User: Which sequence fits this backbone?
């Protein structure tokens, strides 16, 4: 989990015009890391399974799919750091069972 104080400082310093560009940068970097990791794991399993190609494609496909899922989640995410519950100022009305 990222440090929330560092994340709050980062999100306060970024203007709203730059936010989609930063999200795309994170998505592309995440895609390269996860696809490369899947490719590396696929290569290891390919060598263990008598040099077949399907583990390479499977590993890189899993990495790419996981990165795309993270990107979709990042773009659909509501920034919940600034959302706070609304406190009611009206007195609570007690309802009785007698009508």
Assistant:
């Amino acid at each position: 989990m990222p440090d929330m104080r560092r994340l709050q400082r980062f999100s306060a310093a970024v203007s709203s015009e730059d936010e989609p560009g930063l999200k795309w940068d994170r998505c592309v970097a995440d895609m390269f890391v996860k696809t490369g990791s899947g490719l590396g794991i696929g290569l290891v399993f390919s060598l263990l399974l008598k040099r077949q190609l399907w583990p390479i494609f499977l590993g890189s496909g899993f990495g790419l799919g996981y990165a795309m899922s993270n990107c979709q989640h990042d773009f659909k995410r509501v920034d919940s750091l600034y959302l706070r519950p609304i406190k009611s100022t009206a007195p609570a009305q007690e309802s009785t069972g007698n009508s």
User: Anything to note?
Assistant: The mean pLDDT is 78. The radius of gyration is 23 Å.
